[in-house]
## 1
Amino acid sequence: LPQSNISNLIQLQMRHAPLAGYLHRIGKTDSPHCLSCWEAIGKAIKETVQHYILYCPAYA
């Protein structure tokens, strides 16, 4: 695998991927919610690694 892919996998595994939930926790974004789900279904769902991999319709 290319180094960038390995880095992405490690970030996901450590739950430090640049997703809204993590970015909000470290003060880099105003909201922890998934913008894709807000636009698609009108619900404020926290964007976590689990959500990103298993549930988000934008990445399914």
## 2
Amino acid sequence: MRMIDFFDRGARMAHDRPCMIAGDAVRTYSEVKARSNAIARGLIADGFDPGAHAAVLSGNALVAFEAILGILRADGVWVMANNRASVSENAYLLDLLDVDTLFVHSETADRIATFRSECPNIRRYVALDRPFDQADAFLEDMLVDSDEPVPQRRSGAPDELGFLANTGGTTGRSKGVMLSNGNWQALISSLVASMPMKQPPVNLVAAPMTHAAGPLALGSMALGGTVVILPKFEPKAVIEAIEKHRVTYMFLPPTAIYMLLAEPDVRHADFSSLEYISYAGAPMSLDRLKEAIEVFGPVMNASFGQTEVPMCCIAMPPHE
């Protein structure tokens, strides 16, 4: 199975249920699937080859997830890019990982001039959220609508390259990690095994989608879940979103959990919908973990892993 086939599995289960919510914008699974088809057809019409590499340089945004799904549906290789990294680090990795097409949010449009000089293999710069002069094209102008399915252009074999993730750079410069369709299946399987869910999840993306929150959100879509997107982590906004959307699952690093616990009204909020708060990326103080269980309930799920695994190989679910 290709990575996009997992999304399509979720779309078959959910169809007209919400796939993504961002502010007042709500997209159903059928709408997101149609958008990913149109993006894929636009990429193919623009000369995007099977197996070509494409990246999305953006903060948390609904259209950024749509672009990723379009890349995968065009049988491209998704390259994870971090909009919070420095311009020089971005340029180094985009060039190292042989990116052909780069989708860029307007907030990072000023980086394109550097990329044009340092990343000669980038063939096309696509503006994500609005037109701007630095880009070659605007996403909405590239869409090619059709009721016909996008032809599959690669085999989808388990060992076929699916996406490229970046290491953290702890022991040197960041490197690209080649992750296959089989690796993606293992990630989905580990998600399901470590956090059995009573119903399709309502997944809150409050941590950066450029890190673990992004792939885990795509994993939630494979289960027919709803992904609620916040543009950035703000404790008050997180609490409000949990209550409003009846969030069942979210990923946060320990530092963000500490900030939530420090919010004045946190002990008066309704967290009864939560089934799991998954945390990783750094050790968590035992005292703060006990406090989190007291405030949020027995929902804390610790995971351990590394980019190459990918991301999760050991978990301590709430009952442990």
## 3
Amino acid sequence: MEQPAARILNLLCLAGKLPARKVAEHLGITPAEALRQLHGLEVRAAVSQMNGFWFIRPREARLTPAEMDRVLDVIPEKTPGVTVTEIALTLGYSLTQVERAISRLTHAGRVMKSGYGPATRWVKLRGWVSHGFIP
């Protein structure tokens, strides 16, 4: 039997974009389960949500695990940390790619914020080795 996440990805590939309730209806699962699966896919950078509709995230915006490791290598363990813009300029990635990478690294417990606002800086959590990022 196909996994719920794979079924959701297949459905979104065919439909383009759908609200979570429609995903649940098509797959015969509860809306809560559909949302849980969709949020899991969002953390893994497979889908995005805009205005209540879920859709497959464009491939060019995703970073590979090796590229995620490069982002993690740029982030220091001590404050003041680095901004998203500094990471993007250093590695030649788009701001969107770096923001999504930081989001995934934050959800995985690898980095944390140092400050707030437009000049938010990011630092690596101590104790993590920067090889083999797997969210």
## 4
Amino acid sequence: MISEEKFNDKATKFALLKNLEGEFFTLDEYKEKVEVNQKDKHDKVVYLYTTSPKEHHSYIESAKAYGYDILEFDNIIDNHFMQHLEYK
């Protein structure tokens, strides 16, 4: 998915993201979930994520206080996947 453009086009329909509550979403489902509440000053959707929920606990609680949802990317491949999504 990360290096093959054709596979990426297909995989974005079934790739799953996991939030800190343990819920799973496709990319489109997650965008629908957060697009109302998580936008920057340029009206672009902002995706918050953590690679270490225990280490980032205070930041996570602050974000949750604003009603934000946070994704959990705690595997080695997740960092590469997130960079890929940011590039897209």
